[in-house]
Every structure is written in structure tokens, then in C-alpha cells.
Specification:
This protein has 318 residues and is mainly alpha-helical. The protein has 14 helices and no strands. The longest helix has 27 residues.
Length: 318
Amino acid sequence: MALVLPRRGLLLVEILFWIALAASFFIFPDRLYLLTQILIAALFAVSLDIALGYAGILTLGHAVFFGMGAYTAGLLAKGGWAEPLTGLALAFMLCGLIAYALSVMVVRAGELTQLMVTIAVGAICLEIANQATPITGGSDGLQGISMWPVLGAFDFDLWGKTAFVYTFVVVLALFVIVRRMLQSPYGLALKGIHGNRKRMYALGSPVEGRLRFAYAASAAIAGVAGALLAQTTEFVGLDTLSIDRSAAVLIILVLGGTGRLYGGIVGAIVYMVVHDFFADLSPEFWMFWLGLFLMAIVMIGSGGILGGLSRLVRSARS
């Protein structure tokens, strides 16, 4: 989209986009739980886009950091400190540090090896969480989480009003930070590495250092998304670490468009809304209809939804 719209026009579209998301609080007051889940999935997809779409790191185990963030926030709350922002900060730092340590293996590996390493790490973490029943709750999940009010003033209500506003503010703040990072010289360097790593080596760019930082930043934001899920639902299950969740967020990102900043958000909105629609329309065969929908989107062309919109705008202008 940034290639076909003037800078002011693009800024206006962005502002209207976020205003529309905020207005959904008033337009769909009875669907706040779904809207909150969409925002969390969108943040998770944006985190994956940093690693996959911009840095070119192939991963099918990104749910590891999502689950780590969820368990971190959940265990902190259950341990006696249920202040929401502290849980987000701890999940951010812990996931970022662990990912930076793992990035030594991930960054230096080839593409297929990256997939194998990330899948293996995910399987190991899932089994550890499953066996550590006294800590994580095992297959029953981590229960008994009770969050304190946000900023000491806003309780998490049964209707999900506080959860939506809290999640929206966190997602918007992190998105602005990610946007600034990816539009900085560092973000341009990531695009160059993704496009031609050998040329960036020849230019003297610290390729491995930048890729390791990108992987860590991606994991840290995924951890915040997981922490938001734990805090807003007050439950953490093993599925937060599963490869199914990793595959789902990958589908969301490809659906919206990789390397396009807003691809993860648009993909999350479309995927979650269509998922909910087909689940209500046909409870027995909703996966079949969802699969047909995803195949139709892929057949339209590459680049996902934003790629298709970009081509339409370019055709209209020419």
C-alpha cells in the first residue's frame, strides 16, 4: 500500500483504520470477546512478520514465545502479583532474552534447518509444560488466575469492556513502536538482508547481529500477545505452545500479506471474522468452508489481501 498511495493519503488511511477499530467497541458491544481475540491475534501476527516478512527467518515454532508469555503472566498473577502491566513487561523481557539466546542456532542455519530447529524447540517446550503439572497445570491448563484492576482503577468485567480497551491500547502502542523500528535505517537493513544477504555481507553490514535482534524483538512482542491472552481470559492452556497455533498465525500473516506491516492485522481481522462466521453457519463443516475460503484467497494472487489491494489501486491509477 505504501507504494501506491501518497504519504499524506497513507497516513489518513492509517488514522481511519485505527479509529474504526476503536469504534468497534461501540458498534459491536456484544462481540467484545471476539474483538479482543482479534487484536491479540493481530499483535501475534505482527510479531511473526518481523521475523518472517522483514528478516526472512523461517519459523514454524513462534507459538513457543506466545505460550511463554502467557505462562509468565499467568504464573506471576497466580503467585501473588497480578498487576497487568508488570506481567506484560516480564513476558516481554523473558521471551526476548530466551529468543536472543536461541537465535545463535536459528540465524546461522539454512532455511530448512530453521524450520526444523523452531519446530523442535516448540515440541520440547510443549512437552515440558505438559509434564510440569504442579506448575503449569499440565493438560488441564493453568487455572485460578485473577488479575488486579488495570492501573488500579479498571476492573476486568464480565462483558469484556476493560479487556478490549486495555488490549487495544497495548496493541496500538506496540504497533507504533514496531512501525518506527521497521521504517528506520535498521528496518531498511533488514529488508536488504532479506533480499540479498550476501550483498549486505559485502557492504560490511552486521547481518547476524541484526537478524538476532529482529528474532528477539519478534519473540518479545509475541510474548506480550500471549500475556494479553492470559490476562484477558484468566486461563492458559497447552494449546498456546502448540504447532497448531504457530500454523494458524502463519496462515493469518500470509492471508494479510507478509512484509507489509498491516498484513498481520488485516489477516487477523479477516481470518477471525470468517472463522467465527463459518463456525456459526455450519458447526459440523466449518473447517471445510474455511479451507475453501483460504484457498480462494491464495488463488487470487500472491501477496495476500494487501497485495491484491495494492495491485487494484495500481491498476486504477494507471
